[in-house]
Specification:
The structure holds two protein chains of two kinds. Chain A is mainly β. Chain A is 0% helix and 52% strand. Chain A has no helices and eleven strands. In chain A, strands 2, 4, 5, 6, 9, 10 and 11 form a seven-stranded mixed beta sheet that branches. Chain B is mainly β. In chain B, strand 6 and strand 7 form a beta hairpin. Chain B is globular and about 45 Å long. Classes of the chains: A mainly beta, B mainly beta. At the A-B interface, strand 4, strand 5, strand 9 and strand 10 of A face strand 4, strand 5 and strand 9 of B.
Chain lengths: 112, 113
């Protein structure tokens, strides 16, 4: 069955370290999205991509970057982790024209 | 800017006690309104998409409705397994939103046996 996976599921890191969260989907969806979810803020869009080599900033993109070298993967990199980036991160994908986004299981990140 | 407000923030029901969750929105050129269910420690799970005012969709004990300003998620005779956070999201016009969704903060539903 087609699916969307995220790894790791849990991560503890230290302030200042570079961290990369992986997202992989097998639906052949052209659109991929990264969100963070925090109490009191709901799901907020970090970065998104509409296809290979395309990346765009969302509403909370500072301190994060993404790259899209193939259809299946959109890794999210925290350049220098900060305590404010402690959160739960969700990856999602969709197909242009159908627009329903399907979510991965999430990565819980703790920055100490 | 698209905005979504969900109410109430939290709702406690007894098993069998029907109720409704509200999603109010402002959007330029609504292309779709989406409902998701999220269980603790998991990613949001898609429930429904509504595209135009007057549209209704049903799944088991859930029915979603849409007007020009809001959507309701009606829960009929809920069971404890319906306990979850329900998220609402909107997609505006292709020119302003592309394929992005704007989410509300969700309603946390607890159904007691």
């Amino acid at each position: 069955d087609a699916e969307i996976t995220q790894s790791p599921r849990h991560k503890i890191t230290e302030t200042g370290r570079q961290v990369t969260l992986a997202c992989h989907q097998t639906w052949n969806h052209n659109n991929m999205f990264w969100y963070r979810q925090d109490l009191g803020h709901g799901l907020r869009l970090i970065h998104y991509s509409y296809g290979v080599q395309d990346t765009n900033k969302g509403e909370v993109s500072d301190g994060y970057s993404v790259s899209r070298s193939n259809t299946e993967d959109l890794p999210l990199t925290l350049e220098s982790a900060a305590s404010s980036q402690t959160s739960v991160y969700f990856c999602a994908s969709s197909l242009t024209g159908q627009e329903t986004q399907y979510f991965g299981p999430g990565t819980r990140l703790l920055v100490l | 800017e698209d905005q979504v407000t969900q109410s109430p923030e939290a709702l406690r029901l007894q098993e069998g006690e029907s109720s409704s969750l509200n999603c109010s929105y402002t959007v330029s050129g609504l292309r779709g309104l989406f409902w998701y269910r999220q269980d603790p420690g998991k990613g949001p799970e898609f429930l429904f998409t509504l595209y135009s005012a007057g549209e209704e969709k049903e799944k088991e004990r859930l029915k979603a409705t849409l007007t020009k300003k809001e959507s309701f998620l009606h829960i009929t005779a809920p069971k404890p397994e319906d306990s979850a956070t329900y998220l609402c999201a909107v997609q505006g016009s292709r020119e302003t939103s592309g394929s992005r969704l704007t989410f509300g903060e969700g309603t946390q539903l607890t159904v007691n046996p």
